[in-house]
Give the backbone structure.
Amino acid sequence: MVCRLRWAPVLLVALASPAAIAGEPKLVIRGIGLDLGETPVFAPVDAPDLEPGPFLLRRADGGGPTIAAQVVRDGELTAIAAVLPSLGADEVAEFELAHADPASSGADEGVRIEPEGRDLRVTIDGELFTVYRGDDGPKPYFYPVIGPTGSPITRAYPMADVEGEDRDHPHQRSFWFTHGDVDGTDFWASDPLNRPNPKFGTIEEADRPTVVEGPVVGIIRTSNAWKSPTGDLLCTDDRSWRTYDTEGARIIDFDVTINAGDGPVTFGDTKEGMFGLRLASSMNVRNETGGRITNAEGITDLDAWGKASPWVDYAGPVGGETLGVAILNHPDSFRYPTTWHVRDYGLFAANPFGYGDFKYGGGEGAHTIPAGKSIRFRYRVILHEGDTEQSDIGRAFRAYASPPQFEVVSSE
């Protein structure tokens, strides 16, 4: 029997330095001092001959269940994705990797990504999770975003009219990445009707090199061009969106690298940025119906705005339930820990450039990327049931920031 283990308190991606594979590969996982529960792993390996597709992990000592795994090819990168069983704090576990029969899982199982014109519809075990919209407006975004209990967790406006929703800030479209001042061009705001406007830039998808689906993980990787109102190319980005087949929480890992071209590019000091969501209006702290903002230092609600913190969680009522969204900032990310543009009306964004507006650090928040150079951002988004404490977001961050040791070795 193949066991498709489910996410319990913590989701983890372990990124390791590639290790050469000779013969039948084995995976060695070492605990890090935390009882992490089930642990999804995405590990690059030096194995160009390992073909993409479904695999099985069998514990080398013969104990425990057989676990579904997936080999992923993304350009020159080969990686193994799996949801591993719980590891004790100091446990060392060894697994063997074997091919699985692709017909052994149902057509709807796992993460599926289907084109709808230029859009991409993402389902998990046959249920809609989100739709990636690459050219519907001035910047790519995801809408809708469905939480772990089946309720939408981001606002529908302006894509759809839903009774009781706020109808302000039409440029805050569900879930996005952008900034309000790039060499003086505003990519954050936009015309409400998507008309060309001399004030606003556009982020255009230039390439879609990777779309991966499978029993464990789904990946969308795109390259994007940041253009001024006159069509000048100011910079580019390479972004990767990755999610797993999990229950109890839905998880997105978002990595993006911003690249300067032949000349430098400056990301200006403004609060209007950059990696954000506009949450369901019922969750708003302003409503005083149970919404709450909490950061890693325990600072809450309005006081969390503009503060630097490794993570922030925004929880509140949705359809009679308490749901939440946590954004975790990886220590490898530019200007970690990021400052936060998180508002009581449901805007929730990580922004490391808004020091002046935030009155943070006593310094200028702008940053110039030299010609030919880049900066990288890494985030994890956890869509969860319950409030911050019940979801143990602090523990989830520790697992994300310092994953267990992961090693691929030969059986020889």
